[in-house]
Design brief:
The structure is a single chain. Helices cover 41% and strands 20% of the residues. It is an alpha/beta fold and 257 residues long. The chain has a seven-stranded mixed beta sheet, with helices on both faces. The longest helix is centred in the first third of the chain and has 18 residues. It is globular and about 50 Å long. The protein starts with a helix and ends with a strand. The N terminus is likely disordered.
């Protein structure tokens, strides 16, 4: 594999919506590769067009994307060809209930990003995921948070919607809400724990990037400064509460031995 193929896509490293998540996942994958002495077997459930899967494949890991959307998988295959990672990345249509049939062996890492909020039974999906992860393997979950929607609706002057998002069981602000559900941090951590994992890191992402007007983010230096601020706030030991206003929550957990 050439050094060019190993280099992750610049977009996932520097994109406002992906940089912090990628930094965490890439570090975890690198650390585990050193521990195991080999590339990881990675499952990207609901991986869509490969925003996380392709960079992991470029880093040399063996990746499989399982997604229910044939359109997303078609886009993924084009992206795989463009990136030259077809030897490292394969994809198939399916969902969490199909994993034991699809996978030839258990995996070292599962990424479930932007998926729990749109599937019918998140807890069941996490249990199915747990069944295909090796003992000591890892899970990376990124999912929408409730308080971010409350803040966004309030700042938009939609106060009734903000209150609905705050008080509704599913974190939705009404019938026009495009998401089926949003979560609170404690809820996600409880689901992950109940599925057989131990949470090792949990913090909010996209604390400011969805709120800052685009006029302030026109240059690479401005976008880079915001990414750095996001990461600093998300990991600051005294201001963890700010993570709960992030548009998304990133939870990393380890499978029980």
């Amino acid at each position: 594999m050439t050094s060019e193929r190993r280099r992750p896509r610049r977009g996932v490293e520097s994109g406002l919506r992906t940089a912090a998540v990628w930094a965490t996942v890439a570090t975890l994958a690198d650390d585990r590769r050193r521990e195991l002495g080999r590339p990881l077997r990675v499952l990207d459930l609901g991986g869509g067009t490969g925003g996380m899967a392709v960079p992991l494949a470029q880093a040399g890991h063996e990746v499989i994307v399982v997604d229910p959307s044939p359109d997303a998988l078609a886009s993924l295959r084009r992206r795989v060809d463009e990136a030259g990672v077809s030897d490292n990345l394969r994809s198939t249509q399916g969902d969490a209930d199909d994993l034991r049939t699809i996978l030839k062996a258990r995996v070292d890492l599962v990424t479930v990003h932007g998926t729990l909020e749109v599937i019918d039974d998140p807890q069941r999906a996490l249990r199915r995921i747990s069944e295909v992860v090796v003992p000591g393997g890892h899970l990376s979950v990124v999912t929408a948070q409730r308080l971010a929607a409350v803040l966004a609706r309030a700042l938009a002057g939609q106060f009734d919607q903000a209150r609905a998002a705050l008080e509704s069981e599913d974190g939705r602000y009404g019938r026009t809400d495009p998401l089926p559900r949003r979560f609170d941090k404690a809820e996600v951590e409880a689901m992950v724990t109940h599925a057989g994992f131990t949470v090792v890191d949990s913090h909010g992402v996209r604390l400011f990037s969805d709120l800052v007007p685009s006029v302030y983010l026109e240059s690479d230096s401005e976008r880079g400064a915001l990414v750095a601020l996001e990461q600093a706030v998300a990991t600051h030991p005294e201001f963890g509460i700010l993570g709960q206003i992030g548009s998304a929550l990133h939870v990393v957990a380890r499978r029980h031995n």
